[in-house]
Design goal:
Blueprint lengths: L2 H36 L7 H19 L5 H12 L10 H10 L5 H21 L17
Helix pairs in contact: 1-2, 1-3, 1-4, 1-5, 2-5
């Protein structure tokens, strides 16, 4: 395996991690809303909800601060090192994941979308309340 092949594979791996992150944030919110309606208890699991809220908060803070996502930066650098010359030329995985994840719009548009989505995530904390670990239900008398 050549160095450029390895760099291309690493870039694909980073792209897949990035895609998984986006899927966790967007898909997680869909499941939280659906789970609230369907009364799925697992969507109230505190570690899941905290990770979900934190993930979206990181995106919003990066966007408001004008910071490019490190995953995007690393992937682009690896693609250039692999001889791709840019982030849109490359493998099958790269081509299709990029088509699903990246759109042509201004930074301001993306920041507005991220902030609005974060507001939905925060609202879901109140509408589909997580089980806070410090507010455990008291045990019933008689052990039941």
């Amino acid at each position: 395996m050549t160095r450029s092949n390895l760099q291309g594979l690493l870039a694909d791996a980073i792209l897949l991690v990035h895609f998984a992150f986006v899927l966790f944030v967007v898909g997680g919110q869909v499941l939280i809303c659906l789970g609230g309606v369907r009364r799925w208890s697992w969507v109230r699991h505190f570690p899941f909800r905290a990770a979900h809220l934190l993930a979206m908060a990181v995106v919003v803070v990066e966007s408001l601060g004008g910071v490019v996502c490190p995953l995007t930066t690393w992937e682009a650098k690896l693609r250039v090192l692999a001889g791709g010359g840019g982030i849109y030329a490359g493998s099958f995985i790269q081509h299709w994941v990029h088509r699903l994840m990246f759109f042509d719009a201004s930074e301001r548009t993306f920041t507005s979308i991220y902030v609005a989505f974060f507001a939905v995530v925060v609202a879901s904390v109140f509408l589909v309340r997580p089980r806070w670990p410090w507010m455990r239900p008291e045990a019933k008398p008689g052990g039941g």
